[in-house]
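Subgroup meeting minutes
Present: P.N., E.W., G.H.
Scribe: E.W.

1. P.N. recapped why we're keeping a running log of single-chain structure predictions: easier to compare across weeks, and new members can see raw inputs and outputs side by side.
2. G.H. added today's entry (265 aa).
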Amino acid sequence: MKTKIILLFSALALSLYITLSNIQNISKWIKDNQNNKKITEEIKTKTTTQEPLQTTLINPPENPEDQYWKYKDIKLQQIDFTNLIEQNSDTIGWIKVEGTQVDYPIVQTTNNDYYLTHSFDKTENEAGWIFSDFRNNLQNLNTNTIIYGHARKDNTMFGSLKNTLENDWYQNEMNHIIKITTPKESTIWQIFSIYTIPKETYYLTSNFTNIESYQLFIKTITKRSIFTFNTTVNTNDKIITLSTCKDLYGNRLVIHAKLIKKGTN
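Output recorded in log:
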């Protein structure tokens, strides 16, 4: 009887501990999200945009039916980075993904861990921030430039990228665009592949030893797409890759786009 009472109290204590831990985790999750939303709102009130004067089309396709030609006249976005860099010297750019809530500054440091657990103001925050792979350079683009962010359930950071898996998002062709701006250049990227996949490193390859390996890479990631984009991609193209978590099982949501237009800021 005494043993049963002890076991009962132990079970109750464990249950109480788990409940309190869950409450604490939920409270932290909410607080982290609120802090990032506040930071985002403050950033946007101090950010101005305008259209760059000089623009260039990148690697135009020969096919007149290619969706490329629907996007060539889309306006670029120029952002005043003065206040952003004063707030955080790690600021290297700004990203906007059409048809989603992704509209944030991009940061970069010497590793791919720091901004998984720190916000734009460098305070500890499990929501993290949007950051570029430390191997890449937005001012001097690699063959494949990678940008990461957490998929938050409240749709902040890369949380709203899940919209791109929906047919309604795909049917609106004006959604198939990513805008990336740096202090020196404004760019537009045309999406050509979207898919989910178990965690791997292949799609995170930044540079290639030869044209053949890059050609195989393009063929592989294009074939993976859940949607068919009427887009020509070849080894003369620069690629941007967005990577985020799809679920709690380690699967990833990946988006690839090619550079089609740029302007000097």
